[in-house]
Design brief:
Elements lengths: L1 H15 L7 H7 L4 H4 L18 H13 L7 H5 L4 H13 L12 H13 L3 H4 L17 H13 L7 H9 L3 H12 L2
Helix pairs in contact: 2-6, 4-6, 7-11, 9-10, 9-11
Length: about 190
C-alpha cells in the first residue's frame, strides 16, 4: 500500500511539471515539408488539399497524430508524418494556428447557393462545434474560407465513412443525412466566409 502511495505521489509530481511550450519558429521550419501541397503560409493552391492557415492548434495536432497512427489514411501524408515526432507535431500545430486565415477565393458568384448553404448549416447545427464564425476551436476544424472542393470531398468522405479520425462519429452522423445538393451548398457557403 505504501509503495502504491509513493507511486501515486511520484506520478502526480511528474504530471505537475510544466509542459514544454510549442516553438512556432521550429514549426515554421518543419512546415517546409508541407509547402509543396498545403501552400506557402498554409494557403493551399492545390485541388482537394486543405489550407492549414489558422486551423486551431489542437485540430492540426490531432490530425497529424491520426495520420501517423494510420487512423486517417492518405498516401501523400503517410511518408511525411512518419518523419514527425511529438514535438514536431506540437510545433506544427502552433505554427499553423499563428497564421492568418485564408481569404475567400473571390466574390461569391452564387449567393443563392450560399443562402441554401447557410440554411443547411443552421439546420445541421454546424456552429455548435465549428463556432458561430466557423473558425473552429480546440480540436474542431476551421471551415470558414477553406477550399470549396476540399469541403465537398471531406463531407462526402464523412458521409461514406471513408474518413476516420477525430469527430468521425459526429461528422458521419451529420453528413450521412446531407443530400448532394446540401453538401455542395454548405461547401460553397463556408468557402466564401
Amino acid at each position: 500500500m505504501r509503495n502504491a502511495l509513493v507511486g501515486i505521489v511520484l506520478a502526480a509530481v511528474a504530471c505537475g511539471s510544466p509542459a514544454r511550450a510549442a516553438d512556432i519558429a521550429a514549426g515554421k521550419e518543419k512546415a517546409e515539408l508541407c509547402v509543396g501541397c498545403h501552400g506557402e503560409g498554409g494557403i493551399s493552391q492545390m485541388e482537394n488539399i486543405p489550407s492549414l492557415a489558422a486551423q486551431p492548434d489542437l485540430f492540426t495536432q490531432w490530425q497529424l497524430v491520426f495520420f501517423r497512427a494510420g487512423t486517417r489514411k492518405n498516401e501523400q501524408m503517410q511518408p511525411v508524418v512518419e518523419q514527425l515526432n511529438n514535438e514536431d507535431i506540437r510545433n506544427l500545430g502552433a505554427y499553423y494556428a499563428s497564421l492568418p486565415p485564408p481569404k475567400a477565393p473571390k466574390p461569391d458568384d452564387n449567393p443563392d447557393l450560399s443562402s441554401k448553404g447557410a440554411q443547411a448549416a443552421v439546420g445541421r447545427r454546424c456552429a455548435a462545434c465549428h463556432m458561430d464564425t466557423y473558425a473552429g476551436t480546440k480540436g474542431v476544424a476551421r471551415v470558414a474560407g477553406q477550399r470549396e472542393e476540399y469541403l465537398v470531398k471531406a463531407l462526402r468522405d464523412y458521409k461514406s465513412g471513408e474518413r476516420a479520425g477525430g469527430a468521425m462519429a459526429a461528422m458521419a452522423d451529420v453528413a450521412f443525412a446531407l443530400s448532394e445538393e446540401e453538401i455542395e451548398a454548405l461547401a460553397h457557403y463556408l468557402a466564401h466566409l
